[in-house]
Amino acid sequence: MRSSSIIAFSEGALSRSSSVGPFPPKYTTYDSSSYSNSSSSSSSSSSSSCCSNVCRRICSSIDWLLTECLCPPFDLSFQQRLRQQQRFLLLFFTLSAVAAAYPFVFLSVIEAHYPDIRPVHLPKALTAAAAAAAAAAAADTDADTPDATTTPAATAAATPAAAAAPAANEAAGRHKFLTRQGINDSTDAAAAAAAAAEQQQQQQQQMQQQQRKKRNQMQQQTAKHWQQLLLLMKNKQQQQQQQQQTKQQQLNLAQQQMPQEQQQIQMQMQQQQQQQQQQQQQQEAHHRCL
Q1: What is the dihedral of CA 81, 86, 90, 93, to 10 degrees?
Q2: TM segments (predicted)?
Q3: pLDDT in tens, 244-277
């Protein structure tokens, strides 16, 4: 809307200016020749078209700046994109920081756990002293040769080398002493590490022996427990067998006694029947007598 209003305003202004001309009416000059009038009209039309194009481009650029850059459309998709971009940036910075700090941490850990791997850097004084000693040795060899020509330049170069020779010897002695101390320290550390390893091995062996003893004791206890359980099971089985045998004997006795009782009952029934028959016969005889 802003761009359309600005463009309409600019077009209206340009149309008015084109109809009137680039100058107001009171400043216009009229010539007698028609050639001058036609040239002035063509120049005014070309200038108005150029101005209109320039104004349109400026208005479109201003509108784009206002709508897209300064006031972008804050919709859901745009917010999600912003959040994603922020997360990606955070990840990038964290990973870059970790990658930058990793070598230093790695080196510090290695130096802390493995002191023998530390590099031995020679100082500059030792290197200078070694160079001076080499120069002095070269000068001595040149002086010992029979065909050598002693020149003032050679003597001037030999004097500082001879002066620097004792300093070089002292520096070399210090370096050797320091290296020996480092070797002794390393040997002491290695011996301490070996002793600690031996102690650890002894402790491990003792722990293994104790574990074996405990296992043997547990195995013995479990064996005793199982033996007791087996004995109890055997005793229970024997008791159950004895009970079954007694029950069977009682049943057999009961079966043996049942026929005798039945015979006695039958005998009693027969005796009762005989007695009844005798009574009936006596009654009949008594009735007959009557």
Answers
A1: 100
A2: 88-110
A3: 888 888 888 877 776 777 777 878 888 888 888 8
